[in-house]
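hey so i finaly got around to running the thing on Phosphatase domain-containing protein from Bacteriovorax antarcticus. pasting the sequence first so u can double check i didnt mess up the copy paste, my clipboard has been acting weird all day
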Amino acid sequence: MKRPHLVHFLAIVTDDSINIKASITMKENLMAQNLDLDIPTPKFPIQALRLLNAYQFTMKIIGVSKDQKEIYKKSFESDSFGNFNFKIPLTKDRESIEILQLYETKKKPGLELHLGTYIPLRIFSPKKIIICDFDKTLVDTKYSTTKEVYRSLTRSMEENPTVMSSVEILHRYIKRGHHPFILSASPHFYEDSMRDWLYKNNIFSAGIFLKDYRHFFSFLDGELTTKDLKLQGLYKLNHLLDILLMTGIPDELVLMGDNFESDPAIYLTLTKILREDIDPWVVWNDIKEQDIFQLKKKQNSQFLNKIYQLDNLLTRKRKESFGKKISIKIYIRKRFKEDVLIAPQSFEKQKKYLDMVEMYDGLYQKEFEKMMEERHAKSVKGADSTI
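ok and heres what it spat out for the 3d tokens, dont ask me to read them lol
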């Protein structure tokens, strides 16, 4: 027997709203079948291929205070893929919401099927965020051939080499109070496997944004087209804007990616949007001139709308901070030791942006441990010489 199942749920509280991103699918209810449940094991992406199916749902949200008092109740309709993306405006009463109870009410008329209970995430001031790519940045994955794609679907992420130098940077900023978000062009049905990997590497409460491949098969509702299978520019910049619209403009932003494809161009473009007071229409036209951002007619209007929303947030942020610039740092993993930054032509002479980029060696476990031992030995030697 199948029942609605929450794939993911992310709720972030800002100064004026509760921002929610969620996805629901239909899944076999193993408990109802009295099946023996094994000890949890790492998940394979192929086990989540049910997420290629598309369903529509109605999600009822109840906001509850610490003392279990019901403050807010409303139902929301998903898109045709079972995805939700909406804001709940904060009023004086709603500021006391501490818990969100979720129910699906469409699939079984007359029944409210409990999906889960969640505590919304609050990112306190000064607001610090780190957004990190996954493939080739945290994990050295390969999808070049049909064989490699099949292998990635039928084994856990743990079997791919972990880029320990990237994990160390991510851990360092999490300890400093930066909330992590993972942004990847991997298919959306990799989420469970990816979440397992993050937990194993002590990366918790990260918001995950993946490419929903169902959009490529939809003639009406798809936000992505076949060109976006290979070109990552629009997809990644689009989700970077989604993250910032959910969290609000941060005081400190760290971006992590690799030098294999288009991460430097995407991150530098976002940096320019955030650091300069430019009319959204000018920003939009500059973006369209770059090869990695190819926009269809429908994508044009959606993307431009997000840029205007972000501009409104930036205007408010500049007034509140008296014009203080957002602190931005970009880390780009090298492909090889002598690798140099691949920057778009429009940024080649803009040193103020290129100086925000730091290239680093993408080291695996043994190489990373050797590097850390060498660092430790140098620090001990330096300490001894001062005695």
